[in-house]
Each structure stands twice: as structure tokens, then as C-alpha cells.
Amino acid sequence: MARRPTPDAWERILEAAGRLFDTHGVHAVGMQQIIDEVGVGKQLLYREFPSKDALIVAYLQYRTRDWQGVVDGARERADDPAEQLVEIVRSVQRSTPGTRGCPLRNTHAEFPDP
């Protein structure tokens, strides 16, 4: 039975991939850069993410869950829809200092229509 990395290792891989993708772009980052950044073995990375595409999908799903949490929390802090929208924008701004935009949008921009 294959071992799963600890949740901490899984998260470290996705966080490091995100930092590199944000800084250099998805196409410019190689798997070896992620291995070097995280300090995990090549076998662990490729067992969990058999391809770069699999890693990209996992990263985007991971970020989507984060963003959904931010949006849900913001909506709970306000009753009026207009106030909810303002709170969502403020919450996103607070939760993503120094980013270079939406990871979903940035990744989409690097992949032309199939």
C-alpha cells in the first residue's frame, strides 16, 4: 500500500508550487524547482502528483477551497447583499497580500483554448 504524505507535506508542496507559479508563471516552473523548494524527494512528489498537470489541478482545487472559505466567512459577517459584496472584496484583499492576481485566472491565461 502506498504511503500518503502527511497533510503538512501535501500542503507544503501546494504552497510552494503556488508561490513559484505566482512568481514565474505556471509554464515556467518545473517539477524539479518545486522539489528543491519544498525539500521533498522526487518519488514522493511524483507518487502524489504523477504529472505537472495533476499538480496544477490539485493546486487550483486547493486555492478554490481557500477562496470559498474567505467568501463564505465574508457573507456570514453581513446581512445585506451589497454589504456582503463589500465584505467579500475586503476579505479577499486581506487574505491575499502581495499576490499577482487570481490563481485561476492567471493559470487560465497561460493555457489557450484546447
UniProtKB/TrEMBL annotation:
The record's section on PANTHER family has:
HTH-TYPE TRANSCRIPTIONAL REGULATOR RUTR, HTH-TYPE TRANSCRIPTIONAL REPRESSOR BDCR
Citing just one GO molecular function, the answer is: DNA-binding transcription factor activity
The protein's superkingdom reads Bacteria
Q: Which residues form a coiled coil?
A: none
Q: What is this protein called?
A: TetR family transcriptional regulator
Task: Supply the InterPro entries for this chain.
Answer: Homeodomain-like_sf (IPR009057), HTH-type_TetR-like_transc_reg (IPR050109), HTH_TetR (IPR001647)
For whether the record's keyword set contains Transferase, the answer is no
Please name the Pfam families in this protein's record.
Answer: TetR_N
For this protein's source organism, the top of the classification is: Bacteria, Bacillati, Actinomycetota, Actinomycetes, Jiangellales
DNA-binding region(s) in UniProt: 30-49
Where are the stretches annotated Disordered? 95-114
Q: Which UniProt keywords apply?
A: DNA-binding
According to the entry, every stretch annotated as the HTH tetR-type domain falls at: 7-67
